[in-house]
Amino acid sequence: MPASSVAMADAIRVLSMDAVHKARSGHQGMPMGMADAATALWSRFLKFDAADPLWPDRDRFVLSAGHGSMLLYALLHLTGHKAMTMDQIRNFRQAGALTPGHPEYGHTPGVETTTGPLGQGLATAVGMAMAERHLNARFGDDLVDHRTWTVVGDGCLMEGVSHEAISLAGRFELSRLTVLFDDNNTTIDGEATIAETGDQVARFKAAGWATRTVDGHDAGQLRRALSWATRQDRPSFIACKTKISKGAGRKEGDPHSHGYTLFDDEIADARLAMGWPHEPFVVPDDIGKAWTAVGRRGGKARRQWALRLDASPHRDEFVRAIHGDLPHDAFERLEAHIEDMLANPAANATRVHSGAALEHLVPAIPEMVGGSADLTGSNNTRTKGMAAFDRPDYDGRYVHYGVREHGMAAAMNGMALHGGVIPYSGTFMAFADYSRPAIRLGALMGVRVIHVMTHDSIGLGEDGPTHQPVEHLASLRAMPNLNVFRPADAVETAECWRLALESRTTPSIMALSRQKTAVARRTPATANRCALGAYELAAASGPARATLFASGTEVAIALKAREVLEGVGVPTRVVSTPCWELFDAQPAAYQASVIGDAPVRVAVEAGVRMGWERFIGQKGRFVGMTGFGASAPYEVLYDMFGITPDAVVAAVQDAL
Ligand SMILES: Cc1ncc(C[n+]2csc(CCOP(=O)(O)OP(=O)(O)O)c2C)c(N)n1
Ligand SMILES: [Mg+2]
Predict the structure, then answer these.
(1) 572 near 547, Cβ under 8 Å?
(2) Ligand sitting nearest the alpha carbon of 34
(3) Given the residues 367, 405, 495, 554, the one annotated as active site
């Protein structure tokens, strides 16, 4: 007799209990509660082939409730993903294992995205579903035709980012996206109703989703709902009424069984209740076989897809795009633009220079999908002729994300993870704080996402201190694996764009000015100088007595100060620092040569000092901000806060 779906789900439950017990930490409540829904999804609907977890036309499965990682690990193991051996399950949460506390992208084959910060997975899944529709428009049904499924808990839906994600998906009618809600009325502190009495079904419906409620332990209801979901013309939401720790005997439904609460007695009790006599980490043959058959289910579809790919006129282009390789001529036009900017230097805001660079990049790199959180005209992210991404065909490459910075940043992670798309999008830099949790996950996962952040200092002027970043550069530079670019002029902006696009495993911030700034780079160079992270922009006329360090719009201030100092007999050099992270990656000898040995070192940046010791040492002088800005024309603000050539000159003279 073939194993029943209940027995198959019990295998997930028991593995989850055993792994958590062995680790003495983790969460069995959610995996046990959602085992039935996951079994229904994986055994009949999810399109995948365990033999090739990276098959591009697979469905994406996102465990947004990442604390339930054992659900995913059990599924990967049972369906025969080679890397996920029983030893990995036994080593749940141990150093080096493929089974970390929360699922980690890039660490465990079959994990589509890192989850754990609740709500992120849901918002990331929206981006995956957007990428799928866009690539479907570009390459057709033959090559791109899959779904995105995500499992969320009460926590994911309480988080604010869920609102942005849900409304975005509703607006774009992402019919290939289905959310399964682990509707167990439980969070860590107890019943979810102690903090939430909203009607989630009504909420999704209001955002334009198709909705259903089912008994999350009834295989028939689950199957019918999943089948229904695949026929909707809009995103679908299935509230699965579940009991946390389903199957755990006395602990079933106990709001306090979210985390590690099942010890030897309770586990013995649960085994009895489930009729599961087997030893820990043992799955009987019939159940094991049923699961490995599930893992092979998609094999035929994958092989047929591979044949279609081979026969497709889009073959090479598809493979290139999905691997994330740039077109061979990706930067030809950009390099010509750089030559042009050197031959005909023009002062402007770096956001305008960025818009100009994009005019040469977007046509050359079809994977680039741009956007803005309702600040298109300010961010300069939309190039000429760029159509809006929208239903019904989704072939547009410009996304109107609406005022949803967090949802936008998370969706961009999802697009990059999906592959075939290089997302970039804009907002004001002060609102980086709104997107920070997604920026951080992108940095942790190592995805190529470009966050355009204009209005990068008090230089934005009249909008005032609410909009003026002060600590943002420092806080973003503090984040590991994030390149923070702050170019000084047209040439640097173009160079930084190229570097961001070439950074396959590091997301980037493009910090750009609202206000006009003078030309900094005038001498042609054979190589991309911003690639060095920091470099000597202007040499001293003799042995340097002072070095001035600056980024972005303050480079122009440093250059002016240098002229004054040189005029009064103080040989002074200027170092531009467009990307500290890239500078840190240079050989020590290069770094030392850039920092130099001038007796006086001064940095100027319209932000806080934190971090500048890297260049100026403890004794260096800093000309910048010490508090919040103010509302006034920007020239007035630079005077008011003393970020001027005179102030730099005074700092040097004082130090001398
Ligand atoms: C952003 C964020 N805040 C808090 C947590 C800590 N946390 C993990 S699970 C959880 C409870 C979530 O409840 P639910 O999603 O319903 O999970 P269940 O208890 O039903 O398994 C919390 C608060 C987290 N992982 N992410
Ligand atoms: Mg819950």
Answers:
(1) yes
(2) 1
(3) 405
- Told to judge if 159 belongs to the known catalytic residues of this protein, a careful annotator would answer no
pLDDT, mean of residues 315-340: 98
Query: In the predicted model, what is the mean pLDDT of residues 392-419?
Result: 98
71 CA distance to ligand 2 centroid (A)? 14
Q: Whose CA is nearest to atom 21 of ligand 1?
A: 30
Whether residue 65 has its Cβ less than 6 Å from ligand 1: yes
Q: How far is ligand 2, taken at its centre, from the CA of residue 252, in Å?
A: 13
What pLDDT is recorded for position 286?
97
Q: Is the CB–ligand 1 distance for residue 194 below 6 Å? A: no
Residue among 188, 241, 242 to mutate when testing ligand 1 (max atoms within 8 A of CB) = 188
Supply the pLDDT for residue 555.
98
CA 238 – CA 224 distance, rounded (Å): 11
Distance, in Å, from the CA atom of 649 to the CA atom of 222, rounded to the nearest integer, reads 72
Q: What number is the average pLDDT over the span 534-563?
A: 98
pTM for the structure as a whole: 0.98
Report which of 460, 576, 469 is spatially closest to residue 523, judged by C-alpha positions. 576
Quote the CA–CA distance of 357 and 377 in Å, as a whole number: 15
Given a contact cutoff of 8 angstroms between Cβ atoms, the answer to whether 61 and 129 are in contact is no
Residue 1 binned pLDDT confidence (cut-offs 50, 70, 90): low
**Ligand 1 atom index nearest CA of 66:** 25
Do 118 and 65 contact (CB within 8 A), yes or no?
Answer: yes
Tell me if 116 CB under 6 Å of ligand 1.
yes
Ligand 2: centre distance to CA 157 (Å): 10
Choose among 111, 107, 144: nearest CA to 129: 144
- In angstroms, the CA 443 to CA 413 distance is 10
Compute φ and ψ for 445, nearest 5 degrees. Answer: -80, -25
- In sequence order, what DSSP letters do the residues of 465-486 get, joined into one string? TTT--SSHHHHHHTSTT-EEE-
Is residue 437 within 6 Å of ligand 1 at its C-beta? no
Distance CA 463, CA 348 (A): 20
Asked whether residue 524 carries a pLDDT value surpassing 90, the answer given is: no
